[in-house]
């Protein structure tokens, strides 16, 4: 077999057989197919798509590219969640300890920033000392001890996704339904969870901008996921404006801490509770989402989830004082305000621009393997529906790269539309696929 023949077939809209997909990916992971050929293949998939059979084959081959995490010896239901990526989406940092506080086991493998979206691993590592490169025995031991783990995809688990993810990030091939589906599902198959909730983001700041595309992705994920033998359900949630008021690594850690302490922005809390309730029901731990939410609310109010978060940070080598006193988290040397050009109401706040601006300021990466600045990002002083005065701050830029601050400033200013009519609040949870 030759990579170029498979690339050409996909480029021309043909279908690949499972053994061809297996060969191509195997050769790539082994280093015998170079990045440039895989990038060309990914671009062909981006334009041509994949059949469900191809998507299932790609998912299985990716899941089998490394070890699986076996948590079966640990008592309790094992749960997991995954977001298709958004801006300000710091749900995982809240949900993992919350699930552990509810008596479930959540050993989550997470990713780094991708495209304009943030990544949980970059966020968690913004806490000084936190180590996310855990070995499989370390993941298992920590899951057994405290029920909560947030680890980087190890080189041993789904190495194919790790390689493809980095390549897609810098080749414009992220927003492809089969590539997102196989990336998400392969990791969930290789993880040790029995019940998995997927947060399929929809809107300006998501890879799926239109609701019908998000719904198609959610349906594909749940159908292919269930076909591959685990319990999946998905919520479609709004990502027109960022979740919460922060986009950036340490900034989002601060926001997660607020929610764990019973405060924080209502939208972030609502999405977290909706996903958590879905998981409790899917895991058979609650009979309906209302009962599940009431339980989760109590676990936050009692401080149980917050205690579990501190245990999680400490277990992974993090400085617990930095989360108890978040002013100790990394802080940018320069903070620049973006002022409102007019008085009125915030009618729109485009998440995509905010995500790109946060990346430019240093929160994301432009080339594979680059370091992110934990302190960089965008703080949103005003969000959709807020009344603002001309000249008042709309947002604050936490600058990690001064050479990019002007460009980021322009983007953030362009992300806001100020008008004379207060927009009506729109729903955060747009649909559920079970
Ligand atoms: N999240 C993933 O894990 N993979 C993608 O491709 C997109 C979002």
Q: Can you summarize this structure?
A:
The chain contains 17 helices and 13 strands. The chain is α/β, with parallel strands linked by helices.
Question: Keyphrases for this structure?
Answer:
about 425 residues; alpha/beta; Transferase, Pyrimidine Nucleoside Phosphorylase, Chain A, domain 3; Pyrimidine Nucleoside Phosphorylase, Chain A, domain 2; Aldehyde Oxidoreductase, domain 3; 3 domains; four-stranded mixed β-sheet; 17 helices; about 45% helix; binds uracil
Write up this protein.
This protein is α/β, with parallel strands linked by helices. It folds into 3 domains: 3-49, Up-down Bundle (Transferase, Pyrimidine Nucleoside Phosphorylase, Chain A, domain 3); 79-324, Nucleoside phosphorylase/phosphoribosyltransferase catalytic domain (Pyrimidine Nucleoside Phosphorylase, Chain A, domain 2, 3-Layer(aba) Sandwich); 331-419, Pyrimidine nucleoside phosphorylase-like, C-terminal domain (Aldehyde Oxidoreductase, domain 3, Alpha-Beta Complex), CATH 3.90.1170.30. The protein has 17 helices and 13 strands. It has helices spanning 3-11, 18-29, 35-48, 52-63, 91-101, 120-124, 136-146, 159-169, 177-190, 211-227, 249-260, 266-282, 289-301, 304-315, 320-324, 351-363, 405-415, and strands spanning 79-83, 106-110, 148-152, 195-202, 231-238, 246-248, 334-339, 344-349, 377-380, 387-388, 393-399, 416-419, 429-433. The strands form 4 sheets. It has a 4-stranded mixed β-sheet, sandwiched between helices. Strand 4, helix 10 and strand 5 (231-238) form a beta-alpha-beta unit. Helix 4 (52-63) runs parallel beside helix 9 and helix 5 (91-101) packs across helix 12 (266-282). The chain is globular. The model has no long low-confidence stretch (mean pLDDT 95). The structure holds uracil. Residues 84-85, 111, 114, 174, 179-180, 183-184 line the site of uracil (URA). The site of uracil has 9 residues, from helix 9.
